[in-house]
Design brief:
Blueprint: H1 6-11, H2 23-28, H3 115-128, H4 145-149, H5 153-169, H6 185-209, H7 218-234, H8 240-253, H9 268-290, H10 323-339, H11 347-365, H12 369-374, H13 385-411, H14 418-431, H15 435-438, H16 442-451, H17 455-472, H18 475-493, H19 501-504
Helix pairs in contact: 3-5, 5-6, 5-7, 6-7, 7-8, 7-9, 8-9, 9-10, 10-11, 10-13, 11-13, 13-14, 13-16, 14-16, 14-17, 16-17, 16-18, 17-18
Keywords: DNA-binding, Nucleus, Transcription, Transcription regulation
Subcellular location: Nucleus
Pfam families: Fungal_trans_2 (PF11951), Zn_clus (PF00172)
Length: 515
């Protein structure tokens, strides 16, 4: 940390300014805050017994406040953009000052929202949108959903559920025991709200998918898409694969002429941009998700042809994994799934997969991370090609390790990956200085953990996961650490073969989405 943490300053003790949490807070058993945490006040939080009505869209007569980070297009107003490197509650010290989304949205429908919904919408814009994009900017597709959400009740419920769950997670601790309840009245109320909003979103989606017209709307797809991110905040192992499979079916049913049904003019460009963003992210989630699940859990349905030609831009992409590496991982997973098929018993059937995996591994080794980074669209000149290069390297090394383990399973060998592992750990450690890109490397981090055999390597991975949690508050990160600890324990007991993790990782208490 560059300066004393807020907790130590509040306690009037000298902070050692170590990596959060600092040792003084850890020793005292206190939550280590770098900035002043959000304070709940009357009107912003639920008090006492949770009230069901607070999580509904209601008509209220209150006027909307004057402070907002948004314009009518969902853009960030000057002075409020790109806060990805700071604690999201820095500017929310007194929620009574910013309850609601003000007239900047230029939308009368905002007045119909109760104060709680407006607050969560604001929190979504300030704190949640930047989590699911490489670099936050006015072009963030997640933030541009806000005007559309005001037109689509189901989408609005998905947005505020995501926001409320993230707020609830801020009270959790990285080392808290599994199944720990949400501590504090504010956190418990936010979690209660998240469940209510999620319930309403799922009910609305259930009605929409059974309607021939509604199921073809891009905004319906967007509503379901956000539920995958909600699962990352909740656990990373609940229903993400069901949401993903449903999304793939919905996307394939939407025609280019029928996809942009909106109820207000002016959203057509936003909806088209949203469609492109969702197509790319579904492909990414489907590809990376398959690596940490049981073989053949996910379908191999075709994707729209527009998924690959889209030019990636750092302010319109989620994780930044290069397309060539995604294709390689997809190919490796197909071969892994084939090995798990009982019918594949003859060497003549295995040989084509061996040849394919070797060819893709060679192509992956030759992938030029520097050229990829240099060719990316970067709206901000301060975004350095060097750090983007390291991001690509982390996925390249992770892909090589995964592909090599698939080849080992095909050939019956065990290849030492110590050099690649050490390189991967070094690259991830180097990315810690860039919070925006560091939050994009959970998958390579998890692969490094699965390959780690030395205690120093394992501790390095856990330390990185803790920092990742500090930056994102996604509970799938906490679960990733717990999975690794169980995996290491089973390896030490000899109950699993460590080099076969490509098969058994999906059998450790669930099929995980660790991105």
């Amino acid at each position: 940390m560059s300066r004393s943490c807020y907790t130590c300053r509040r306690r009037r003790v000298e902070c050692d300014m170590s990596q959060p949490p600092c040792s003084k807070c850890t020793k005292a058993g206190l939550e280590c805050f770098q900035k002043r945490p959000l304070r709940w006040v009357q009107g912003a939080a639920f008090r006492g017994k949770p009230k069901t009505a607070s999580a509904k869209i209601t008509l209220v007569s209150s006027t909307v406040m004057d402070k907002s980070p948004l314009t009518s297009n969902g853009d960030i107003l000057p002075g409020t953009s790109n806060r990805a490197n700071s604690t999201c509650t820095d500017d929310l010290e007194d929620p009574s000052d910013i309850l609601g989304i003000p007239p900047g949205l230029d939308d009368p429908s905002i007045i119909r929202l109760d104060k709680t919904s407006r607050y969560y919408l604001y929190y979504y814009s300030k704190c949640v949108c930047k989590l699911f994009i490489m670099y936050d900017s006015n072009q963030n597709p997640m933030r541009k959903l806000i005007p559309a959400a005001l037109e689509e009740p189901v989408l609005l419920m998905s947005v505020v559920a995501l926001s409320a769950q993230h707020m609830a997670n801020t009270a959790r601790r990285f080392y808290s025991s599994e199944g720990t309840t949400y501590a504090g009245a504010g956190s418990a109320d936010a979690h209660h709200s998240a469940l209510l909003y999620k319930h309403q979103a799922i009910q609305g989606l259930s009605r929409a998918v059974n309607d021939a017209r509604l199921c073809r709307r891009d905004l319906t797809v967007a509503s379901a898409f956000l539920l995958i991110f909600l699962d990352l905040l909740e656990s990373g192992s609940d229903n993400w694969n069901f949401h993903l499979e449903g999304l793939k079916k919905l996307m394939n049913s939407i025609s280019q002429t029928e996809g942009s049904h909106t109820t207000r003019q002016g959203l057509e460009a936003t909806v088209q941009e949203l469609r492109d963003f969702i197509i790319r992210q579904i492909y990414l989630i489907d590809t990376l998700g398959a690596t940490c699940t049981r073989p053949r859990l996910l379908s191999r349905s075709a994707f729209p042809q527009s998924v690959m030609p889209l030019q990636m831009s750092v302010d319109k992409a989620y994780l930044g994994c290069p397309d060539d590496l995604l294709d390689a991982l997809r190919s490796f997973s197909i071969s892994r799934d084939a090995i798990a098929t009982p019918e594949l018993v003859q060497n003549t059937e295995v040989y084509p997969h061996i040849q394919k995996v070797r060819a893709v591994l060679d192509s992956t080794r030759n992938f030029d991370c520097h050229s990829w980074a240099a060719g990316l669209s970067r709206p901000d000149s301060s975004i350095r090609s060097m750090t983007l290069d390291k991001l690509a390297q982390s996925y390249k090394l992770g892909s090589l390790i995964y592909g090599t383990r698939v080849l080992d399973a095909l050939t019956g060998s065990v290849t030492s990956m110590s050099d690649s592992l050490n390189q991967l750990i070094d690259v991830i450690d180097a990315l810690k200085s860039d919070d925006a890109l560091f939050k994009c490397v959970l998958w390579p981090m998890f692969v490094a953990g699965l390959e780690s055999r030395e205690e120093s390597q394992r501790q390095s991975v856990i330390d990185c996961l803790e920092k990742f949690w500090f930056e994102t508050k996604c509970i799938n990160v906490v679960n990733a650490a717990n999975i690794l600890r169980r995996f290491w324990k089973q390896e030490e007991c000899g109950t699993i073969c460590s080099s076969q993790w490509i098969f058994n990782i999906g059998q450790i208490e669930g099929d995980w989405l660790l991105i």
